[in-house]
Specification:
6 helices, 6 strands, Rab, single chain, Rossmann fold, binds guanosine-5'-triphosphate, Small_GTP-bd, binds magnesium ion, P-loop_NTPase, globular
Length: 175
């Protein structure tokens, strides 16, 4: 029988334009209010119990979306098992910039071939929404990404997304 190590650590990258809500998704239990921009990079650890009772640790790298910090970003793309590209459903520009973020994964990434997710944020702001679920879903399908919508404020899918990421990475790894 194959032995599974007691603790497994997976590197996960969270990217997207500034203010789309990356840090709030990572800190959904206690979102930073008022807005505090990342200055470079932030690291959060998430302990996840898989359905098979295996415990894994997600090492989540939260990259600043602001232009100023883009020169240091490329160093963080290597060896990640999953990459979440986030846009804000109320911001057309953040959606349009998703393609550029995905390009960075292929430009800066190594051969780790991470699982890719498109994450639509702030779905609590229904009246301000400019990107529909359908549009984002079709776009994600075309690029071969999984699509998931979240609201850190309403705690919608915020726990599930990390569970899903951990389960899918684990299932893809060889044990
Ligand atoms: N309505 C709503 N606002 C949100 C949600 N998540 C985050 N915000 C707000 O969006 C703004 C940006 O959130 P952050 O999580 O700091 O954004 P970020 O993507 O980490 O930004 P950078 O660190 O600059 O790259 C803040 O004012 C948050 O309060 C959400 O689910 N709903
Ligand atoms: Mg941030």
């Amino acid at each position: 029988m194959t032995q599974i190590p007691a603790q497994i650590v997976y590197k996960v990258l969270l990217i997207g334009d500034t203010r789309v809500g990356k840090s709030c998704l990572l800190k959904y239990e206690n979102p930073p209010i008022p807005y505090t921009p990342n200055l470079g990079i932030d690291l959060s650890l998430k302990r996840i119990n898989l359905k098979n009772e295996q415990e894994v640790l997600l090492q989540c790298w939260d990259l600043a979306g602001a232009e100023t910090f883009r020169s240091i970003q490329y160093t963080y793309f290597s060896r990640c098992k999953a990459c979440l590209v986030m846009f804000d459903v109320t911001s057309l520009s953040s959606f349009n910039n998703v393609t550029g973020w995905i390009k960075k994964i292929s430009d800066y990434g190594d051969q780790s071939n991470p699982l890719l997710y498109l994450v639509g944020s702030k779905i609590d702001l229904q009246d301000e929404r400019v990107i529909s679920s359908e549009r984002a879903g079709i776009f994600a399908d075309q690029l071969g990404l999984r699509y998931i919508e979240v609201s850190s404020f309403k705690k919608h899918n915020v726990k599930l997304i990390w569970q899903l990421v951990a389960e899918e990475i684990f299932n893809r790894e060889e044990h």
